[in-house]
Amino acid sequence: MGELYDDEERRFLVLVYVPRARPAESVTRLLKVTCAYRVAATGQAAHAAAPAAIIQRPLELTDGMAPPSMEVERERVRLDATQDIAAARVAADGGQHAGAAQILESRLKAVEKSSATGACEALKEELQDLSARVGDRREYQQTGRARLLAGMSSHAQQRASASSSTTNAPRAYLTPKMEEMVETSRRQSRKRQHPDGQLKQIKLDLGD
Fold first, then answer.
1. How far is CA 183 from CA 143, 162, 174, 177, 194, in A?
2. pLDDT at position 21, please?
3. Which residues contact residue 189 at a Cβ distance below 8 angstroms, ignoring those fewer than 6 apart?
4. Three-class DSSP labels, 21-87
5. Which helix (H) or strand (E) element contains residue 175?
6. How many C-beta neighbours within 10 Å does residue 140 have?
7. What's the angle, vertex CA 163, arms to CA 159 and CA 168, rounded to 5?
8. Which residue ranges does the record annotate as region Disordered (predicted)?
């Protein structure tokens, strides 16, 4: 899983084979997940466990049945989108820019129709942005390919890319701490680029 920074999280989509229910079986236990990790601040080992994942096996469906998990649906949507982003990159690298844009536009429509669409705003923004960058050969060479690669890496690691902190870039996985660190880095960069302005301000302050 790798290291997690402040406020980061990792989600795992596990596909399991559900066996046929046995006679008189009302509940089937699928799996139980445990996690062992080391706290970076203290270096101490820690453990966590989740309740066992089970499914009910009723003979008939009733109105009281729990609805499908939106978190699971969101991960399904994200996984499908990630695969199409990779397919769009292959198409665009092969010169099929219109086809690459069509792949992303079709996936965007599928995301919008999904029951988890409310939780996928960042993903929709990303697909719109990428679609606009792959359709034109020149735009793809200048910014599109780099943005596609950054998006693929971001989804693979479930971690925001450097471009995620820009105003018009997708903001999936971006945490408050990361935004704070990026803003601090920008301020320091501006100070290094304009040292004369700082000296003038210091002289003015001394003159006062």
1. 23, 12, 13, 10, 17
2. 81
3. none
4. CCCCCCEEEEECCEEEEECCCCCCEEEEECCCEEEECCCCCCCCCCCCCHHHHHHHHHHHHHHHHHH
5. none
6. 23
7. 115
8. 151-208
Contact by Cβ (8 Å): 82, 150: no
Q: Backbone phi, then psi, for 8, in 5-degree steps?
A: -80, 155
Nearest by Cα to 104 from 123, 83, 131, 125: 131
Minimum mean pLDDT among 42-56, 79-93, 141-155, 177-191: which range? 177-191
Backbone angles phi, psi at 27, to 5 degrees: -140, 140
Map residue 199 onto helix, strand or coil. helix
pLDDT of residue 169: 44
Give the pLDDT mean for 14-35. 84
Cα(170)–Cα(128) distance, rounded to whole angstroms?
9
pTM exceeding the 0.70 threshold for the entire prediction: no
Digit-coded pLDDT (tens) for 107-159: 999 998 887 666 688 888 889 999 999 999 999 999 999 989 888 888 877 77
Query: What are the backbone angles phi and psi of residue 177, rounded to the nearest 5°?
Result: -65, -40
Domain ranges of the chain: 1-60, 70-158
Helices 121-134, 97-113: inter-axial angle, 10-degree rounding: 160
Length of the chain: 208
Mean residue pLDDT across the chain: 80
